[in-house]
Amino acid sequence: MILTSMIKEQFEKASPKKPPVKPRLDEAANLRAVVEPLERESAIELSVLKSHCCEGADLSGLQVLKTLFSGATFLGCDFDGSSFQDTIFENCDFSNSSLASTGFTRCEFRNCKLIGASFTEGLFDNVMIKDSNLSLSSFARSRWKSVAFVACDLSSADMGEMQISQGRFQDCNLVGAAFFRTSLMGVDLSTCRIDGLVVSESMAELKGAKMDLYQSAEFVKKLGILLAE
Asked: How far apart are CA 189 and CA 169, in angstroms?
């Protein structure tokens, strides 16, 4: 009973108390339309990119501030080392693109396609991702602070060796997702599909996470405990 109370207290302390801070971007403002092709290490501010289409381009080192990406497609592009601040991505496709070591501060992704995208060693600070497909994506060794996924597909995603602070998953598909060496303390998984969730043999990653009885039964079986019929 004492142990249960301690874990509950740790969960409450680590769980998010409020949603991520919204981007400081007025979508109704008169944003400058970007019509020229993007180039690596360029700076974009107070702009809107609509229906841009790019494949296999080197766009590393971008510095983006208060910008709206709408209906943009970047397939297999390189955004490594870029920075996005107060930026909104709406109906965009970044499938198979690399965004390694990229920073996102007060950003939102809405109805985006990020299949196979790599966010390894990235920094996410107050980020909301909704209604988006991130299957087969990688967030390995990334750091999250106040990050929320709502109604997202994260099946078979690699989330190993991450640092999560105030992380939230709501109504997400986490089937086959790997959280190897990532502490889920304070994370509520009870509304998500977590079949085949990959953790270490000790299952230490799950300490302080919340799940329903049906979900927890799968992990109890892995411990060799027989459940009564």
From this structure: 6
